[in-house]
Write a sequence for this structure.
C-alpha cells in the first residue's frame, strides 16, 4: 500500500477532533512489522544521514539521533508528504484561531518546503532516534528556524515489552496561570503519534488562548528502542 492510501485509511475528522481537544492523536498500524524492521536496519547505514547527534554531549538527555540526508529515503519522503496534506488542514485552522496567516501552510508539502527553502531552511529534519537502557530525551520543542509547522509525527519501530521497556513518550502542556499537565504514551510497534510541536489554541470563556507544549521520552529501563521522527519544516 502506498503512503497516500495508508494515510487516507484514517478517520481524519476524528483525528482533527483529538488534536483540537488534546494536542495529539494516535495513528495505529501506520507501519507494518516488516517496514519497521527495514527502517531499523537503515540506522546502521552512515551514508543515509547528514548528521549524528550524541544527546548527552549537548545536554539533551541520553541516546543518539541521526538526521536523514537529502534526498530522503523514498519511503520516508512519501510518508512525510502524505501526512502533511491532512495535517495542514489543522495547521491552517489553528493559524486562524491564533490570529495568524493560514496561507503560511499551503495544501502540499512541496509548497510548504518552498517557503522553508526561501527562508534559508534547506536541511531535511526527518530522523531516527536510538535509545538503550538508561537513555532518555529531555523535554523540548523541535524548532529549526523562523518557519515551523505546528505538528509532527513519531513512529515507534521496536516492540514494547519485547525489545524494550520504559521509554514512554511524554507530552507536557503548560496553560497560562496553571500547573503543567503531563501525559505519557506507550506506543505499539508501527503506531504513529501526532502531537503539537510548539503551541496550540485552546478555547476559553473569552475565546482562544495559546497553550505551549513540549515533548520528551522517559528513561528506557531495558533493551533497545528505535523511533522514526517526521518533522515537516526543514532546518537552517
Amino acid at each position: 500500500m502506498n503512503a497516500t492510501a495508508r494515510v487516507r485509511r484514517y478517520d481524519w475528522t476524528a483525528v482533527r477532533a483529538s488534536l483540537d481537544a488534546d494536542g495529539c492523536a494516535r495513528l495505529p498500524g501506520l507501519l507494518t512489522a516488516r517496514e519497521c524492521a527495514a527502517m531499523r536496519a537503515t540506522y546502521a547505514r552512515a551514508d543515509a544521514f547528514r548528521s549524528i547527534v550524541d544527546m548527552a554531549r549537548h545536554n539533551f538527555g541520553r541516546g543518539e539521533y541521526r538526521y536523514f540526508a537529502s534526498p530522503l529515503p523514498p519511503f520516508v519522503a512519501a510518508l512525510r508528504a502524505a501526512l502533511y496534506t491532512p495535517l495542514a488542514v489543522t495547521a491552517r485552522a489553528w493559524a486562524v484561531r491564533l490570529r495568524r496567516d493560514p496561507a503560511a501552510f499551503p495544501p502540499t508539502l512541496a509548497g510548504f518546503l518552498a517557503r522553508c527553502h526561501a527562508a534559508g531552511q534547506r536541511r531535511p529534519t526527518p530522523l531516527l532516534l536510538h535509545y538503550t537502557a538508561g537513555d532518555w530525551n529531555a523535554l523540548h520543542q523541535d524548532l529549526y528556524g523562523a518557519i515551523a509547522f505546528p505538528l509532527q509525527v513519531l513512529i515507534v519501530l521496536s516492540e514494547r515489552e519485547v525489545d524494550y521497556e520504559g521509554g514512554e513518550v511524554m507530552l507536557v502542556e503548560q496553560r497560562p496561570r496553571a500547573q503543567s499537565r503531563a501525559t505519557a504514551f506507550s506506543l505499539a510497534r508501527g503506531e504513529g503519534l501526532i502531537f503539537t510541536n510548539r503551541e496550540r489554541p485552546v478555547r476559553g470563556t473569552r475565546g482562544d488562548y495559546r497553550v505551549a507544549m513540549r515533548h520528551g521520552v522517559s528513561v528506557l529501563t531495558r533493551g533497545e528502542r528505535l523511533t522514526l521522527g517526521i518533522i515537516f519544516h526543514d532546518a537552517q
Notes: The mean pLDDT is 96. The chain has one domain: 3-230. The longest strand covers residues 207-217.
